[in-house]
Amino acid sequence: MFSNVSNFSNDVDYALAMIIGISLFFLVGLTLIMIYFMWRYDHKRNPKATDIEGHIGLEVLWTVVPTILVVMMFYWGYNGYLKMRTAPDDAIQIKATGQMWSWSFEYPNGRVTDTLVVPLDKAVKLDLFSKDVIHSLYIPAFRIKEDMVPGRDNWMWFIAQQEGTYNILCAEYCGDRHSYMISHVDVLPVEDYEKWYNAKEKKSDYPGLALLKSNACMSCHSVDGTRLVGPSFLGIWGRKEIIVLENGVEKEIAVEKEYLMRSLNEPNVEVVKTYSKGMMQSYKDVFTEEEKEQIIDYLKSLK
After folding, report:
1. What domains, with CATH codes, occur in the chain?
2. Distance CA 7, CA 121 (A)
3. What is the pTM of this model?
4. Which tens digit of pLDDT belongs to each residue from 57-73?
């Protein structure tokens, strides 16, 4: 607590400490008073019940004091909230996208990464989007969290005030691999950030790999044989699989171009046995025909 990792850290920590402190004070105080009353008015010490009339002073006190405390807590929290919803005009704008079960970040120059890279002591505004279900982008060290709701615009901003690497988590349950939806923020000195931002990206030998990563395919399909939500890509080309058709009929096929194309366009028509239908969306209009060919070329390489 009381860190200055981001411009919001101290405000949130102080608000939390104040609320916890007030709560503990009343918890301990009221508990002690209750114990005293139990002892003081035990039937042995007070054998004859007596009627205790109201006390105007006490009634005013226990009405006014809690009201003041609640207003203080509201003011502190609302003041912090207003700061979080007022982004500077010169903030660096980055598009943050969540989908089952990965993050992607698109920078003003068109670069896309699966981790967030930001400069030190510069305002950054994240435009938040979801491709499928509700996610919640949470950076614990920065004390910020905002929901990503499909079809609804949202955003968050911050100023990172310490160099380092900090976790990014999803704080809204979003399916089987929700707990694996982890990334991180790299906070760099401004000079290092500028070098990184302006550096030319190395072209991959397999463009299809970049397409799979940027569309969260690796969240459901491993490349090392591990069973995830979908079949592993390792050795998939030419592999014999039992598939289940829409009417429940099973048949054996060899995984080749025709089947992979159908799986990209209509993924829930022919599903590999022991895997669930409905987990994969159609990529018919997401990838061009050329991009689908690039993906298949990459899958061929995974011997």
Report:
1. 9-84 (1.10.287.90), 92-198 (2.60.40.420), 207-301 (1.10.760.10)
2. 9
3. 0.78
4. 888 998 999 999 999 99
